Automatic annotation (TrEMBL):
GO biological process terms, semicolon-separated: nitrate assimilation
Species this protein is from: Prolixibacter denitrificans
Pfam families found in the cross-reference section: MFS_1
Primary gene name: narU
PROSITE patterns listed in its UniProt record: MFS
Keyword line: Membrane, Nitrate assimilation, Transmembrane, Transmembrane helix
Places the protein is found: Membrane
Record protein name field: NNP family nitrate/nitrite transporter-like MFS transporter
């Protein structure tokens, strides 16, 4: 046993999870832009179409919870690989179905496409797995930087592909796009299989070393965070920590909000500001990319200033920018406010996952599952609320809908205040 050679480094562990999540998140980017093709071919209602478009995000949210907790027993590579493989199967299934049945033989295929869509969404669920897998590689003082880099770069996929997809669809067509995305995701699966590696403790456990010896040897190599218990224990233990639920609410606002606004902003720019579809898509992509990229410096800032203080600053930005967006009719001011809102969301998303291993060090995977899975549900809850406001107030309602974020930011500022009041002295 003593001759066992460990594999990888923290940097390699981070590279593997970041690339894996980027590929997995990109896998479902086709659904929204190609929704009209499914509607026309199958003759389905708008309600059924809405379910079809939402189903990858639904599985990508719910599966974060059990798969995130699984990291605490396996180290992450196995659940991450399985989720990517299921996503490959889902996207491959849709590609084959379209090749043989589109456009004249699609009637009656709705259930099958819904199933494949559910599988495709598994790539999004890799997020919480990657959080746990990355977290175990790094010491407490570097969690913000590492997790900010992972989530920030991985989250770039929706923004980047919202720019690429319209061009690809225009030049190569609907079915070709699905084939290209299937090949892209399959390559991502192979890359992760090669680069993905578990932290030292899990490698020693896989080599049949005892828990105590594995901890001892991993500590000598620099690992600071260790799991305890089974998948069930990880979920239960993290759920018992009240601050886990505080982090869920914080993440619900800014990651759920990020997903929600990626869907809402095209309508806002088009219907309220009068932008063309292409221009509306461009400014939505700018918001998405900025919110993702700013998670990287946001993580480093959180390491230095503390996750709670970083989150408080972020919520101030969300509050102020949302008030401006709710009232301004100026396109220029609206664009500037959207940029500030992107900064607030990116910074808070980074701060939240700096705090996960701080508050729940023995069940990082379970906590990451709860926070990532339930937090992402904001992407389903927030748009209908904003839509209801728009229905009530007419055109101005597209702006007034941002009051949802004003309320959420105010609630979160109170939560952060309570976290700071109860926070122990942090040792870096």
């Amino acid at each position: 046993m003593d001759t066992f050679q460990v594999k990888g480094t923290p940097k390699r562990g981070l590279l593997g999870t970041t690339l894996g999540f980027f590929f997995g998140f990109a896998a479902v980017s086709l659904y929204g832009p190609t929704a009209v093709n499914f509607k026309e071919a199958m003759g389905i209602s708008s309600t059924l179409l809405g379910l079809l478009v939402a189903i990858p995000s639904l599985s990508g949210s719910l599966l974060r919870i059990p798969f995130g907790a699984w990291v605490d027993t396996t180290g992450g590579k196995k659940p991450f690989f399985i989720l990517l493989l299921l996503s490959v199967i889902g996207l491959g299934g849709i590609t084959l179905l379209l090749h043989f049945s589109y456009p004249n033989h699609m009637h009656g295929m709705y259930g099958l496409i819904l199933f494949f869509g559910f599988l495709s969404g598994c790539g999004i669920a890799t997020f919480s797995v990657g959080i746990g897998q990355t977290s175990y590689w790094y010491p407490q003082k570097e969690q913000g930087k590492a997790l900010g880099t992972y989530a920030g770069l991985g989250n770039l996929a929706p923004g980047i592909f919202s720019l690429i997809l319209p061009l690809y669809l225009a030049h190569y067509g609907f079915i070709s796009a699905y084939l290209a995305w299937f090949i892209f995701l399959f390559i991502g699966l192979l890359i992760y299989a090669k680069l993905g590696v578990n932290a030292y403790y899990f490698q020693f456990r896989d080599a049949k070393m005892s828990i105590d010896k594995s901890r001892e040897k991993a500590k000598k190599l620099g690992q600071e965070i260790f799991p305890s218990g089974s998948v069930k224990d990880s979920l239960i233990n993290s759920a018992k920590v009240k601050n886990t639920w505080a982090l869920v609410v914080l993440y619900f606002t800014t990651f759920g909000g990020f997903i929600a606004l990626t869907a809402w902003f095209p309508t806002y720019w088009n219907q309220f500001q009068g932008f063309s579809g292409v221009k509306a898509g461009l400014f939505t992509a700018i918001f998405s990319i900025l919110a993702s990229l700013l998670r990287v410096p946001g993580g480093s800032f959180a390491d230095k200033a503390g996750g709670e203080r970083m989150s408080l600053l972020a919520m101030v930005l969300v509050l102020l920018s949302s008030i401006v967006l709710a009232f301004t009719q100026s396109a220029v001011i609206g664009i500037l406010a959207a940029i500030v809102l992107a900064a607030g969301m990116g910074f808070n998303n980074a701060a939240v996952f700096k705090l996960v291993p701080h508050y729940v060090p023995q069940s990082v995977g379970g906590a990451a599952g709860w926070v990532g899975g339930l937090g992402a549900f904001g992407g389903f809850v927030i748009p209908p609320l904003m839509g209801a406001i728009a229905d009530s107030y007419g055109k101005i309602g597209y702006a007034r809908g941002f009051f949802v974020f004003v309320l959420l930011a105010a609630i979160n500022m109170f939560i952060i205040y309570r976290l700071l009041k109860s926070k122990p002295v942090e040792k870096n």
